[in-house]
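Just curious: can you write whichever protein you like plus the matching C-alpha cells?

***
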Amino acid sequence: MKKQDIIAASADFGARFHVWLDFILRWECEYDEHGHIRTENVPGDGGGLTFAGIDARSHPAFCFSDPKPRDVARIYYNDYWQPARVGELPFPVGEVVANYAVNMGLRAAVKLLQTALNSFAAHGGIRVDGVLGPKTVQAVAQVPEEDLADRIEDEAGDRYRRIVARRSSQRKFLKGWLNRNRALERWWQGLAA
C-alpha cells in the first residue's frame, strides 16, 4: 500500500480532512525503497507494531497482516479528527490540535490548546483539563486563528523538551518531534497564503 491509496480512500471524509491526512501521513509512515508503507516496530516507542502511524497498543483490532487503505483513513477520522472537533474549530487551529492528538494523544493536545488560549489576556480563565468542551471551543473563536496555532505549536515544543528532561531515553525522538512542529507550521502557512 502507498500513501496515495490511503489519501484516495479518505475522500469521503471531506476535503479538509483529506488535505490534513496527507500531511499527517508524511510524518507517520515508514516507506520502503518503492514507496510502499511498511510495518515497523521502533525500539523505545511504547506503541509496539505500527503501520502508517497506527500502533498495536492503541488499535489492537487493526489488521497489521493485511491493512486496508479505508481502515487507515477511518481510524484517523474516528480516533483523531472527530474527537478533536476539527469541524467546530477554525483552520488552522483544528488541524494543529488534530496533529497533536495523533502525536501525543487527544487529552494532551487539548491541554496544549487550553494553555495556549490562556496565554491570551482575554481568555486566562479556561480550565486546563484536556476536555474539549463548549467553553474551550467558544474561546477559540475569540482569538486570531494563526496566532493561536502558533502558540499551540510553541506549547508543544515546550512539552517535548519537558518529556526529554524527565526521560532521557526519549531524547532520540526530540529532533523529529521538533522538525514535525516546524513542518506543521510551514504546511498550514502555505495553505493559508
